[in-house]
């Protein structure tokens, strides 16, 4: 694992300042409380220094120690431990198994001489349970075997409050509230001295190396575990952090979040509590003291005192980012949350995420970069600005300062590698497409969409058209120049269209179709233009290009008039007469448009119907006269003509009859004669000129549609009479007459037909007709009988109801009120309704003349 510089070791107290020329005097313990530094020596002296910290702008802070005084405690043993109780202004000194109370400033013992005797080691309870601010809770390991004692220490007295026995001899102790964390001879335990409950943590062999028990936070301890592990344990007996792996020869440990610092005979090692990795190693020989005091970490040899000065976390994070150690930087940044105010942390953390994102981006780790950019709420223009010419020229964006990365542009980042550059562009396309509809884009959607358009155009990407036909904020000037540069003329037309410059868009598309500019985006661009003009609301624009689309294709071009939206047609935006005038030069288009008016819109105007019929007729005559003889097409046009002549009643019949004279179109002539009511003449044409008996029968059917049955019967009788007239084709007509009778028996009056038929016809030939006639007659008679029976039944029911009503008496008094006018009856004349309601006769009469008036029911 690569090292980072988390701490710098600086000297605090030099040997000369401490001991002068006393070579045999060694430092045994230290204590620091604010600016006050205390040192205990092996010759029973306590030294008091005042620390002065001096910040250095370009490096770690330096410390100057000023000696205040020193005092001999009156023993011949070393000073084993020092602990400051600032609330009492007392220094607790352990020497010769006795804890003395001395004044923090003059080091004088308290006048009462209060002390705790028989202590091997002690610890202060930094999470006291008494709540008394003028006392300190002290826990000692007693010289009595397997005994722990709890004391309350005041300014000038001490008071024992608890004595606890242990299963093994305790070697080290730390206190938190009612909980003791104890290192016994073979194991660590958590003991609640209030309840007496103990919980084993894990075994440990004290003979191999000394135990370490360190309170590092509320209800949490750091312990030296087996196998060179620094173990974390809570008062609940569980570990909420993974262990750190330090040297097996560790003799001291301290915590300066987010680091655990360990001391062995040769080194100081720094380990992260966040990812459990060793981060720094500092050579430090002959060290034997490592302690942290309110965030300040002090180490000492027997001859000097040193302070580990932490580098600012932001500096550490930036160093990690500079080394491309993104994950470590992010872990450290998250861990720094507890030490930095919330708002400042959020700003700092967002920037770190953005920096990390650019590092991952430079390594082409696009998925990781995207998540970091999103989490860091990156101003996406920072990313766009790496790509030359993507930001609009009107953009006022300037890069963040200090910069988030070290790259001038994409060319420098990829070192000219075209494959890497293409990957970076594909990533930006994807990222911009994702963020353009999110809050990230708020405030600079123009920059994002313009950059996206440029990327799409350069890469010939299909999404270019999707971008332009949906809501977008592409800046017209920049985007138009870029699209023209990359010959995306169809897309440029869409851009003009989106910016309400329809005329420019259509002209550009027309130039593409005409071949003036080259763009193969759409092979059906002509049809697209027609469709665009069809839905265009600008009438002048449609008229401007109407001739162009009709010249290209009459059948397709006419759709700009025939397929307009229904709502626009209802507004009558285009006058049909104007359109017809325009289409005079385009006969095929004119036919299509008249069909639209007559058949689709069903306009009831004689001029349109007559004009369409004439055009059909002219086309039929041209086809018949054509040498190529396109029979199928002529049949289709003739069918259209015949349908129009049959269905429409608005064209000028006489005018068309004149046009048909000598044209050789007998079927059409027959239809026109039928429109004039000249049915016999029409049927004569069909029977004698065309010899089309099926057409004659169909003529009778369509001519009688919507008319009364006698009219249809007259038509069929007329046709039958024509068949029965003697002539050159008497036999053929006789067969047609028999078929007519047998197929349409119900359409004839049988009695009249029998009088018309020749006597020579046999009954066998007429059997189907006669059978149908008799069946029809019987059916009609029975239907009448049924109707008569139903009428009689209904009359009987009404008669019964009437008799029933007449059989009951009606009581009329002056208290009865008319149900219509609510006035009393003045004479014994009234009208009674089926529901029993009584009304005046004049009220009933007025109701009959005014049906909207209220009614109590049907009158009896």
Question: What key phrases describe this protein's structure?
Answer:
single chain; 860 residues; alpha+beta; 4-stranded antiparallel sheet; 42% helix; 21% strand; transport; VPS39/TGF_beta_rcpt-assoc_1; VPS39/TGFA1_Znf
Secondary structure: elements and pairs:
Blueprint: E1 7-13, H1 15-19, E2 27-33, E3 36-41, E4 45-56, E5 59-72, E6 79-85, E7 90-95, E8 98-103, E9 115-117, E10 119-124, E11 136-142, E12 147-153, E13 158-165, E14 172-176, E15 179-183, E16 187-192, E17 197-203, E18 213-217, E19 220-225, E20 229-234, E21 244-245, E22 252-256, E23 259-263, E24 267-272, E25 278-283, E26 287-293, E27 296-301, E28 305-310, H2 313-322, H3 326-335, H4 342-362, H5 366-375, H6 380-384, H7 410-414, H8 418-435, H9 445-459, H10 463-469, H11 476-485, H12 489-498, H13 502-514, H14 525-534, H15 539-552, H16 554-557, H17 559-562, H18 566-571, H19 576-582, H20 587-600, H21 606-625, H22 631-647, H23 653-660, H24 666-675, H25 679-689, H26 693-703, H27 709-724, H28 730-743, H29 750-756, H30 767-806, E29 831-832, E30 838-839, H31 841-849
GO biological process, one term: autophagy
Main location: cytoplasm
Protein name: CNH domain-containing protein
